[in-house]
């Protein structure tokens, strides 16, 4: 069984920083992708940042230069460092993982999901 557990969310003022953590339990074999989605009520989940099994990273344009995704293979933790946070970044953030992902930014490509951690940015 693969289990993902997020933490690190909270409330910050615009311009502040947060670091989210995703602890991955269980082994995901083969080519895979792990990353972060976010969602606000009434909207579809949108892909934020992803890291492939070979370490290559991918970001949506609106967070590029502000967010950094990384992984600690020894501890099986994926991080999302979020700097220069904006009010528009407010959302529930979910960690996700999937095997043989064709389109990293499509939520239905992923088989494993965390429970979510709330990020609120006040202006």
Notes on the protein architecture:
The chain is an all-beta fold and 123 residues long. The protein has strands at 3-7, 10-13, 18-25, 32-39, 46-52, 57-59, 67-72, 77-82, 91-99, 112-113, 117-122. Strands 2, 4, 5, 6, 9, 10 and 11 form a seven-stranded mixed beta sheet that branches.
List keywords for this structure.
52% strand; mainly beta; 4-stranded antiparallel beta sheet
Précis, in short:
The protein is mostly beta strands and 123 residues long.
The fraction of residues in strands falls at over 45%
Count the helices. How many? Answer: 0
Question: Which class do the helix and strand fractions yield?
Answer: mainly beta
What composes the largest sheet?
A: 7 strands, mixed
Low-confidence stretches: none
Indicate the mean pLDDT.
95
Oligomer: single chain
Q: N- to C-terminal separation?
A: 41 Å
Question: What letter string, H or E per element, gives the SSE order?
Answer: EEEEEEEEEEE
What's the helical proportion of residues?
under 10%
Q: What Rg do the Cα atoms give?
A: 13 Å
User: Quick one: overall form?
Assistant: globular
DSSP, total strands: 11
What is the secondary structure topology, with strand pairs?
Elements: E1 3-7, E2 10-13, E3 18-25, E4 32-39, E5 46-52, E6 57-59, E7 67-72, E8 77-82, E9 91-99, E10 112-113, E11 117-122
């Amino acid at each position: 069984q693969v289990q993902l557990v997020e933490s690190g969310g909270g409330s910050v003022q615009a311009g502040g920083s947060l670091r989210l953590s995703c602890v991955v339990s269980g082994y995901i074999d083969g080519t895979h992708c792990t990353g972060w989605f976010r969602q606000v009520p009434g909207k579809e989940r949108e892909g934020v940042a992803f890291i492939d099994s070979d370490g290559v990273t991918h970001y949506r344009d609106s967070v590029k230069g502000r967010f950094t995704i990384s992984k600690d293979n020894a501890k099986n933790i994926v991080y999302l460092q979020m700097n220069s946070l904006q009010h528009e970044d407010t959302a529930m953030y979910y960690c996700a993982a999937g095997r043989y992902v064709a389109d990293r930014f499509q939520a239905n490509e992923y088989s494993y999901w965390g429970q979510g951690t709330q990020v609120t940015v006040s202006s």
